[in-house]
């Protein structure tokens, strides 16, 4: 029952956003009482935390840096970051807006669970790019990750670029994409350009 409540609540959060959603609205389709929900979750925030954990588990599985993906390191890095922007500002934009602006601490708490694994995988991917001659050999992988994380957060979790009234992908193109191109070798740039139409969709 607990897993069913989490999945149902997540579906509702994704469709309706977080702030306006109540426990009563969430469970209306399940035919259970609020008492049943409170048996597993003391507050809406407790339930939301479980929902965020489930959502990020799915996302990290989808955007995994390992596996059978045979694309080059620079194409993978570009794709993962751009797909992240697509997820944050896509059909579930109300959910991510509410999450980023009203529940960032809760989100950070859940993300800590994945941070080490993601950090290690990403650093390995950057190192692979260096060894493959696609990324400049004088850059520091950990610093690249820190910079990309900061830039990504500035787009998705702050109002920093709101004054420009631009679409998220235009902001991405003028910030993260410029940075990624800056750490690439000429070989890496050719690799990005060769795959650009596919990865920028």
Protein described:
- With 201 residues, this protein is an all-alpha fold.
- The protein has helices spanning 2-16, 23-27, 34-40, 44-62, 73-89, 93-102, 104-131, 141-156, 168-174, 176-183, 186-199.
- The longest helix is centred in the middle third of the chain and has 28 residues, at 104-131.
- It has eleven helices and no strands.
- The chain has two domains: 1-62, Arc Repressor Mutant, subunit A (Orthogonal Bundle), CATH 1.10.10; 64-201, no CATH class.
Secondary structure: elements and pairs:
Elements: H1 2-16, H2 23-27, H3 34-40, H4 44-62, H5 73-89, H6 93-102, H7 104-131, H8 141-156, H9 168-174, H10 176-183, H11 186-199
Helix pairs in contact: 1-4, 1-6, 4-7, 5-7, 5-11, 7-8
Approximately how much beta-strand content do the residues carry?
Answer: under 5%
* DSSP summary, beta strand count: 0
Tally of helical segments: 11
Taking the sheet with the most strands, its summary is:
none
Helix content: over 70%
Characterize the overall form.
elongated
Total number of distinct structural domains: 2
Q: In whole angstroms, how far apart are the ends?
A: 39 Å
Radius of gyration: 19 Å
Give the ordered list of helices and strands. HHHHHHHHHHH
Q: What ranges have pLDDT less than 50 throughout 5 or more consecutive residues?
A: none
Class from helix and strand fractions: mainly alpha
Mean pLDDT: 88
Concise account of the structure shown:
With 201 residues, the protein is mainly α. The chain contains eleven helices and no strands. Helix 1 packs across helix 4, helix 1 (2-16) packs across helix 6 and helix 5 (73-89) runs parallel beside helix 11 (186-199).
């Amino acid at each position: 029952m607990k897993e069913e409540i989490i999945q149902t609540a997540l579906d509702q959060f994704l469709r309706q956003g977080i702030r306006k959603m109540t426990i009563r609205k969430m469970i209306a389709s399940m035919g259970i009482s609020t008492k049943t929900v409170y048996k597993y979750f003391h507050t809406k925030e407790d339930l939301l935390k479980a929902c965020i954990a489930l959502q990020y588990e799915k996302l990290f599985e989808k955007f995994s840096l390992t596996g059978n993906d045979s694309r080059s390191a620079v194409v993978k890095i570009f794709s993962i970051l751009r797909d992240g922007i697509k997820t944050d500002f896509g059909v579930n934009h109300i959910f991510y807006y509410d999450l980023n602006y009203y529940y960032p601490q809760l989100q950070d708490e859940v993300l800590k669970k994945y941070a080490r694994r993601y950090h290690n995988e990403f650093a390995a991917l950057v190192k692979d790019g260096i060894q493959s001659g696609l990324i400049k050999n004088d850059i520091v992988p950990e610093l690249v990750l820190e910079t990309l994380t900061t830039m990504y957060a500035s787009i998705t979790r702050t109002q920093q670029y709101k004054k420009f009234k631009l679409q998220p992908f235009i902001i991405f193109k003028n910030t993260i994409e410029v940075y990624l191109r800056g750490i690439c070798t000429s070989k890496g740039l050719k690799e990005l350009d060769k795959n650009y139409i596919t990865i920028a969709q």
